[in-house]
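Suppose a colleague, Dr. K., hands you the sequence of a protein chain of 141 amino acids and asks what its three-dimensional shape might be. Before reaching for any lab equipment, you can write down a predicted structure in token form. Begin with the sequence itself:
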Amino acid sequence: MQIISALFVENFALRQAPGPSTRIDLTGAFFSMAAPRPVPVTIDPHLVVLVYCPANESGNGVLEVVFRGGIDADSQLLARNVSPFTVEPGKFTYRLVRGELELTDYSQIFAHCRVGTGDWHLVPLTLLPPASTAAEPNQTD
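The predicted structure, expressed as tokens, is then:
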């Protein structure tokens, strides 16, 4: 099995199309986000992972997602999720993973994703300082 795509998203929906065929509507895909308040802060981004199973495989797999503070395997561990799944051979499946991440600084983190003991697929996410909600005063000369 292999990961086809992995993205942080705001919304995810499935719908039927003629065929029968399934469509996946992903909205608000993002690679950065403003912190809801100053650090330290806990964020819970949603990661959708799409997995394909070739027709000649069993259809049983395990998705592992490890959120780390860097790209290396020895980078700081922030959270880990392991979930078994079944997919019909020759088809696709998806997994939604919600990370609950406690961050102490504005930085880039990475979701390290893999099926079984396969290769890691990395998805970056940058935590930005909170967005200013106060209107800037008008300056006149």
